[in-house]
Structures are given as C-alpha cells and as structure tokens.
Amino acid sequence: MPNKNYVNIVNDSIYIVENILNDIDLLIVRTISNNPGLNAKQLLAILKEHHPSITIDMIKNSIKRKLIKYVEFKGSDRNGGYHIK
Asked: What pTM was computed for the model?
C-alpha cells in the first residue's frame, strides 16, 4: 500500500503545473526554454506552426496572467525577449 503521508514534491509540482496550464501555455514555456530571448512576434512565428489560430494577444495574455511565475522579460521593449526564470 502506498504511504498517503508521503508527498513527492517533484511529481506534485508537475501535476499542479499541468492542471493549471493548457497546451498553448506549455508550448509557450517549452519554446522559450529552447529559444531564450525571443520576443512576442518571434514566438508567434514559431507557435503558428503548431497552432494556426494563435494570436499575439493570446501569447501576451498567457504570459502576463498564467506564466508570470515561470517567464520574465529581460531587456528593453524594443530589443528584449522572454526568458525562463
């Protein structure tokens, strides 16, 4: 029988993240992780291949509302990009 008092923190945090974030959010995080420093327009170009209906507003809103704990913007508004915290 499994020990109900034991909590596997790594698996539980992954479970929580997967339940809060949808597929597009996870794809945004993976794309930023693989290509740090991308701006919103560059993210849109990459993500359009997987989700043709995605818009730049969807990306920005997702980062502001759901991914604020995981993603940060570094640099100036013109030349900066998104990075994983």
From this structure: 0.73
**What one-letter code names the amino acid at 41?**
K
**Which residues, including other chains, have CB under 8 Å from residue 41's CB and lie 6 or more apart?**
56
Whether 17 contacts 33, CB under 8 Å: no
Amino acid identity, position 21: L
- The pLDDT, as a whole number, for residue 4 is 53
Report the 3 state secondary structure along the chain.
CCCCCCCCHHHHHHHHHHHHCCHHHHHHHHHHHHCCCECHHHHHHHHCCCCCCCCHHHHHHHHHHCCCCCEEEECCCCCCEEEEC
pLDDT tens sequence across 3-45: 454 444 444 444 545 557 888 898 999 999 999 999 999 999 9
Evaluate whether 43 touches 84 at the Cβ level (below 8 Å): no
